[in-house]
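Subgroup meeting minutes
Present: P.N., E.W., G.H.
Scribe: E.W.

1. P.N. recapped why we're keeping a running log of single-chain structure predictions: easier to compare across weeks, and new members can see raw inputs and outputs side by side.
2. G.H. added today's entry (246 aa).
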Amino acid sequence: MATDPLLIYALVLVVGFAAGTVSGIVGTGATIILLPVLVLVFGPREAVPIMAVVALMSNFAKITSWWREIDWRACSAYALGGVPAAALGARTLLVLPEQAVDVALGLFFLAMVPGRRWLAARNITLGYGGMAAAGAVIGFLTGIVVSTGPLSVPAFAAHGLVKGAFIATEAAGSLALYISKAVTFRELGALPFDIMVKGLISGSSVMAGTYTARLIVERLSVTTFQYLLDGVMLISGLVLLYAAVR
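Output recorded in log:
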């Protein structure tokens, strides 16, 4: 990996823009695509809090793109269970060895390729109680594995949301979880000023890609969405496992 700061940030910005575009189209993927690059250039200990800042910016962009279509009740139910669970997960993450973080991230993403299809095949419908329970489970995992978009996507889809309403409501619910996680990192000293700056730089390109994605989101077919989501999870999982064993 190049050590020139300009080349490093150029790589992060390019990948961040691509990640933001994918995330803006399918509702998830920014963290999955960008995280392996952040791990490789900054290390897993810095990459996790940096990605927490990026996730805040990415979800804010999706919310503002589809503001009028948010289902606030579903978002509130999800956040009710997810906010305290995300804080607990973030505290758990900070006591884990760095290599364990890499392995956990890689295995998680690979497992979600068949896992997402298993959930979708059963067409489970979630009410508000189910959304709160899903928020609690996904919130804790979000604190540990950085992003659980592959899980939150079927959760919000199972509530009956589609397209803009789905993208914005999932983003609003996730934003609440990431705020909880970022506050926890800050309180525990894992989000110093330099990490915040790296997160803001990385997040700016993700936001740009997210706003660009709105131009094409209505044209995306369900089949393309499924293949794209599986592809980014598969590639990112393999890259993270490579980072753990190299």
